[in-house]
Amino acid sequence: MSLSVKLVKNVPGFSLDVEWEANNEFVVLFGYSGAGKSMSLQIIAGLLKADEGYVYLNGDVLFDSKRGIDLPPQKRQLGYVFQNHTLFPHMPVWKNIAYGGKHLSKREREERIRRMIKEFHLEGLENRFPSQISGGQKRRVALATVLMREPKALLLDEPLSALDSPIKMEIMKLLREVKERFNIPIVLVTHDIFETFTLADKVVVYIGGRVAQIGAPYEVFRNPANPEVARLFCAQEIFQNIAF
Amino acid sequence: MDSSLLFSLRLSFQVAVIATLFLLPVGIFVAYILAMKSFKGKDVVDTFLTLPLVLPPTVTGYYLVVILGRNGLLGKPLYEATGISIMFTWYAAVFASFFVALPIMIKTTKAAFESVDKNIINASYTLGHSEWETALKVVIPLAGKGIVAATVLAFARALGEFGATLMFAGNIPGRTNTMPLAIYTAMTSGEYTKAHIMAGMFTLISGVCLYLANKLGRGSLR
Question: Positive or negative CA dihedral for A200, A83, A143, B127?
Answer without folding.
Answer: negative
